[in-house]
Amino acid sequence: MLTNSPLIHAYRRMWPFIKPYSFRALLGMLLTIPVGAFDAAIAAFLRPFMDVVMVEQQSDFTMQLPIIIICFTLMQGVLIYAASYFNSWVGAKITTDIRTQLFDKLLSMHTAHFDQQSSGAILRRYSQDAERASGSLINNLKLFLTKFFSSITLTGVLLYNSWQLAIIAVGTLALVLYPLKAVKQKLQKSMNADEGAGANVMTIYNEAFNGNKIIHSFTLEPQMRGKFDQRMEMMFDNRMRIINATSWLSSILHFISSLGVALVVGFGGYLITVSHSITPGAFVAFVAAMLMLYAPLKSIGGTYVDMQRSFMAIDRIFQIFQQDPAIKDGALVLDKVRDGIEFKNVSFAYIKKRKVLKNISFDVKLGQTIALVGNSGGGKSTISNLIPRLYDTTGGEILIDGVNIKDYTIKSLRSHIAVVFQDNFLFSGTIRENLALGAQNVSEEAMWQALRNANLDEFVDSLENKLDTEIGERGTMLSGGQKQRIAIARAFIKDAPIVILDEATSALDNKAERVVQQALDKLMENRTVIVIAHRLSTIQNANKILVINEGEIIEQGAHDELLKQQGAYYALYETQFKT
Ligand SMILES: Nc1ncnc2c1ncn2[C@@H]1O[C@H](COP(=O)(O)OP(=O)(O)O)[C@@H](O)[C@H]1O
Ligand SMILES: [Mg+2]
Question: Among 208, 205, 199, which Cα is nearest to 235's?
Fold first, then answer.
């Protein structure tokens, strides 16, 4: 009754994940055969017990039957244990494999993918779905097979005791298919909504965690609570809808099974008393087997929801797997930058039809420094994000040594670029780990040199554990300026020929900035640099300054030239100079 096509479809899709463990999976499944079959044996023995012991009053069976029952259930117990061990083992393995593949996929996702998703949705789709997909699929398969084999043998017992009654009992069971079908659509809709609500709730937790300072300082607790309540209510409503859909199912199924019992009792009475075609023992054994056959109907509602949930999880997982890696890898290996970077009529939009960059063209020769200045929101960070291909251009092209950066392997391209952002992410772990960022064999001396360059050596030296100091998740133990200097130090350690500084000193005070600026000047020596500066005083020596406004280059030239023009740059300079 459960072999409708989505089930087969789900297993076919999951097969690559099941395959490596197919032997144990099969073993687990095979073990369910006797577990199911033994159910029927117990029912079958009721017939001689009734006819021989109760009706004919012979005592031969009085001792045998209890022993048989105990033996069978003991064996069943051992088999149930073994089967559930293998099935859980396989289920956990599959969950791990799916999670790992999903995580690889997550890591390969384009930055834009993360712009479009909430953190809650990521958690649910990449982590929880794996569990749901494989865990319940395996459990349900086990349940299904056990019930399937017990159904076969129980049906055998039914037929053996009375074929007429068996037709009635099994025929009534077929009625179950209709309500199952009816409930499915309703269920899917509510479950989709439930999924969305679940992701929303996760996002709130995440906001409560990451935004706790803002929440406290703006006393946003009531608002957060309000948001939370609203989402909980949505979740509650969805859950109730799911439960309503299925408890209705349970009632119908309950009715159908009672109908079957009623028909069998009615017709069975006739067969015993009028046509004398079956013995009372056969009848009792029949009813026992039939009750066993019908028993799973009681829990079918829950199982059905569980199965639908896992089908939907599988759907979502495969949607993720089928997603193109939005960023396509090139084939050329960039081994050395020889000439420089060129933007050729580059345009870009984060969201369709809303161009953030229009027709940007400029070049940076090897060893040159180019500065981007202009009002905030103009598109400076966007330009710098395009170079390591955090996003891909929507028009025009970016060339390094005359080759489109899309033609280089991402790995080689990015290995030539060091970026210091305005807001730098630090990983939980030690200062050492955050400086090396995965680079092997960075010497102790190189670490300290980088710290000296970033003017952070004294601070690190003052810490008890020095380089091995844990800095907490996101570097919570450090000040904004210290975090920024760690980011600068790691750019030194990366020692890449292209350096992108996106307001890299914005979190520093004037004094620290002056010192770090010297370090940055050192970092910029002999490298190709794109620097976005909030303080114009720091970029006066740049080879070229581009003034970016609303996605366009409105002025370009050296500091002195631009000042002479008395245009936008001059105006910016004037306002900063005055303050
Ligand atoms: N991830 C994003 N998704 C959609 N729009 C964005 C995103 N990041 C930036 N923008 C928009 O792009 C424009 C340029 O932003 P940005 O390059 O950060 O400017 P700047 O660095 O010059 O201050 C802004 O209008 C901003 O709202
Ligand atoms: Mg910016």
Answer: 199
Cβ-in-10-Å burial (0-12, 13-18, 19+) of 227 comes to: middle
Q: How far apart are CA 477 and CA 88, in angstroms?
A: 41
Contact 393, 347 (CB under 8 A): yes
Which has the closest alpha carbon to 502: 530, 462, 544?
Answer: 530
Between CA 242 and CA 189 the distance in angstroms is 9
Residue that is written with structure tokens 């997909």 in the block: 133
**Which residue has 């030296």 as its token pair?**
461
Averaged pLDDT, groups of 10, the chain, 579 residues long: 64 85 86 77 77 74 77 86 86 90 87 82 85 76 76 86 87 83 78 82 88 88 92 89 79 86 89 83 86 79 78 87 80 90 93 90 91 90 93 92 92 91 83 83 87 86 87 79 86 89 80 77 86 83 90 90 86 78
Which helix H or strand E contains 549, and what residues bound it?
strand 544-549
Tell which residue, 501, 394, 396, 414, has the closest CA to residue 454.
Answer: 501
* 357 residue type, one letter: L
Q: Which of 347, 381, 383 to mutate to test the pocket of ligand 1 (most atoms within 8 A of CB)?
A: 381
Query: Which residue in the block uniquely carries the two structure tokens 């039914």?
Result: 158
Q: CA 228, CA 200: separation in Å to the nearest integer? A: 9
How far, in Å, is the centroid of ligand 1 from the Cα of 383? Answer: 10
Per DSSP, helices labelled H in 175-220 are 177-210, 212-217
Q: Which residues pair with 408 in a beta bridge?
A: 332
Beta-strand relationship, 544-549 and 369-373 = parallel
Beta bridge partners of 457: none
Give the span between the Cα atoms of 281 and 451, in whole angstroms: 89
Which of 353, 356, 550 should be mutated for ligand 1, with most atoms under 8 A from CB?
356
Domains along the chain?
5-322 (1.20.1560.10)
Q: In what order do the strands lie in the sheet with 395-400?
A: 354-365, 340-351, 395-400, 403-404
Tell me how crowded residue 445 is: count the other CB atoms within 10 A of its CB: 8
Residues in the ligand 1 pocket, defined by CB under 6 Å: 115, 350-351, 356, 376-382
**CA atoms of 168 and 149, how far apart (whole Å):** 20
Q: At 105, list the tokens.
A: 């996929």
CA dihedral 237, 243, 246, 251 (to 10 degrees): -120
Nearest atom, ligand 1, residue 380 CA: 22
The encoded tokens of residue 556 equal: 């370009």
**What is the CA(377)–ligand 1 centre distance, in A?**
6
Contacts of 529 (CB under 8 A, 6+ apart): 364, 368, 369, 370, 498, 499, 500, 501
Could you tell me where the beta strands, DSSP code E, fall in 409-518?
Answer: 417-420, 498-502
Residue 350's contacts (CB-CB under 8 Å, 6 or more residues apart) are 112, 115, 356, 382, 391
Q: How far apart are the first and last CA of the chain?
A: 79
Residues 6+ apart with CB under 8 A from 268: 162, 165, 278, 283, 286, 287
Distance 533 CA to ligand 1 centre (A): 16
